[in-house]
Amino acid sequence: MPTQLKKIGEIAELLGTTTRTLRYYEEEGLITARRSAGGTRYYCDEDVARFRAVLRLAETGLPLEDIRRLASERAKHPTGAQSSQEVRRLIDILLTSIRNRQERLASIAAELSAAAGAVEHCRNCSNPPTRQGCPECPLNSLLGESDVLNLIWEQAQTAP
């Protein structure tokens, strides 16, 4: 049974993204659309799967250049053995990148959780939420330990 071709708007709706994003991926060489004589883009099920993979990988924060390399590497080699070796190398690089990102995200998540707990101390405070309004705030002592709390608290105003 032949695959029914879909227009870009249908694909965008199906994947929960925008047509602009899909066009961008096409411009970046990640997908090649079939086109009607009038220029309308059409995609098959395999294209949808490819778009889905690109979207998911991009969602992790992987650079499109890395995704493009992964998408195109296999076809660059004359044998499956060579292709397999290089694709595996690229996958290992991407896995390392994602694991490093996971560690950074876990660290930030822990810091955000700690900041959430810390700001609970202010829940019943009637003082203005500024350094001047609450100079004795016990959280002031935590500012050196938390980048998140440093972001939440206003900048100290010092004369030059």
Can you give keywords for this protein?
160 residues; elongated; mainly alpha; Multidrug-efflux Transporter Regulator, Chain: A, Domain 2; three-stranded antiparallel sheet; single chain
What does this structure look like?
This protein is mainly α and 160 residues long. The chain has a domain at 1-59: Multidrug-efflux Transporter Regulator, Chain: A, Domain 2, CATH 1.10.1660. The protein has 6 helices and 3 strands; from the N terminus they run E-H-H-E-E-H-H-H-H. It has a 3-stranded antiparallel β-sheet. Helix 1 crosses helix 2 and helix 4 packs antiparallel against helix 5. The chain is elongated. 7% of the residues are buried. The model has no long low-confidence stretch (mean pLDDT 88).
Provide a concise account of the structure shown:
The chain is mainly alpha-helical. The chain has helices spanning 8-15, 19-27, 45-59, 64-73, 80-119, 147-152; strands at residues 6-7, 34-35, 41-43.
Mind describing the biggest β-sheet? Answer: 3 strands, antiparallel
Termini, distance in Å?
75 Å
Side-by-side strand order of the widest sheet? 1-3-2
CATH topology of the domain at 1-59: Multidrug-efflux Transporter Regulator, Chain: A, Domain 2
Tell me the name of the CATH class of the domain at 1-59.
Mainly Alpha
Give Rg in angstroms: 25 Å
Order of helices and strands: EHHEEHHHH
The helicity comes to 55-70%
Coarse shape: elongated
Total strands: 3
CATH architecture of the domain at 1-59: Orthogonal Bundle
Average predicted confidence as pLDDT:
88
In percent terms, what proportion of residues is strand?
under 5%
Unreliable stretches (pLDDT < 50, length at least 5) are: none
Query: If helices are DSSP runs of H or I spanning 4 or more residues, what is the number of helices?
Result: 6
Indicate the structural class: mainly alpha
